[in-house]
Design brief:
The chain is α/β, with parallel strands linked by helices. It is built from 11 helices and 13 strands.
Length: 312
């Protein structure tokens, strides 16, 4: 199949591309910048890479029209909740309009194209009960989360009204090689990197909060399962289904690297927007024959080896 991945050089996109190439698919990777080209260095001769910002709808439309892909996996977007408050209209373009544009392009071209949207646990907001599942009400606390949720609804609408083959997945706290690590936009990778560098790590609230963490290889196998076995029009959670307390994360990092953990009060801004404790019932995805294989501790060890190998 011909598969187009927006954000194809990114964290999830590059790992996904490697697995799809192993399965002999024809890949077109769209990227805003070539700065992450090293992420696909092992497959670069076997894929087509196009420098297209997904908010440049003219170029994006031309690319879809030219390639007429069988599948579009939409991973690109602005992923910082902080930036979504700083540049809210840009966030709408990146996280909402881009999805709507692609769906409308598929409809107008009458493409037989499966559209798969990558979304986030942030759309839920602060859950009133745990575990979360596909039927949990959403009340996002950020502009970023609101725009991602809008994109999910566009997929449902284009499926129910126009019959488009759409699927949506939401990922919990994912981590692993190639994820950004210099800022706390991805808290887990940032903490692993600081521990690797021998720096003290900072955790809020004595680490007495938990998240559902999942390693990148399990995310990729989940996306492949959804692409091949997911029911059109449906939403699936990609998660480990297990809660990891942050004080346990701190203990593992100390054990593996000797880092020291500093516990500090939770900032006011974080209290306003943070989803708090979070764990997912992933049984709907597991019913398709998928299950996570990598423990969080093993994923941390793999990430540390990656930093050592890259000498970051």
């Amino acid at each position: 199949m011909k598969i187009m991945i927006t954000g194809g050089l990114g964290f999830i996109g590059s790992h996904l591309a490697e697995e799809l190439i192993k399965r002999n698919h024809n890949l077109v990777l769209l990227t805003k910048t070539y700065s992450k080209k090293s992420n696909v260095k092992t497959i670069k001769k076997r894929v087509q890479i196009e420098k297209i910002d997904i908010t440049n709808f003219s170029k994006l439309g031309n690319s879809i029209e030219k390639h007429r892909p069988d599948v579009i996996i939409h991973l690109a977007g602005q992923t910082s909740h902080t930036k979504s408050f700083e540049e809210p209209l840009q966030d709408v373009d990146s996280n909402t309009k881009s999805t709507l544009f692609i769906l409308e392009k598929i409809r107008k071209l009458n493409l037989k194209c499966k559209f798969i949207l990558g979304s986030t646990f942030i759309v839920v907001g602060k859950p009133k009960s745990l575990p979360v599942d596909e039927d949990t009400p959403c009340n996002p606390t950020t502009i970023y989360g609101t725009n991602r949720l809008s994109s999910e609804y566009y997929c449902r609408i284009y499926h129910s009204v126009f019959g488009l083959d759409t699927l949506v997945f939401r990922i919990t706290n994912s981590f692993g090689p190639r994820e950004q690590y210099l800022s706390n936009k991805n808290a887990i990778n940032h903490l692993i990197y600081k521990a690797y560098k021998g720096e003290d790590i900072t955790i809020f609230n004595q680490g007495k909060f938990f998240r559902d963490m999942i390693y990148v290889s399990d995310v990729v196998s989940a996306i492949l399962t959804i692409m091949n076995k997911g029911k059109s029009g449906n939403l699936y959670w990609i998660s480990s289904g297990k809660k990891v307390w942050f004080y346990q994360l701190g203990k593992w990092l100390t054990e593996l690297t000797g880092t020291k953990v500093k516990y500090v009060p939770t900032p006011k801004y974080t209290k306003r927007v943070d989803v708090g404790n979070f764990v997912v019932n992933n049984s709907k995805l597991c019913a398709l024959g998928w299950k996570p294989k990598t423990t969080v501790k093993s994923g941390i060890q793999d990430s540390l080896r990656y930093f050592q190998h890259m000498q970051l």
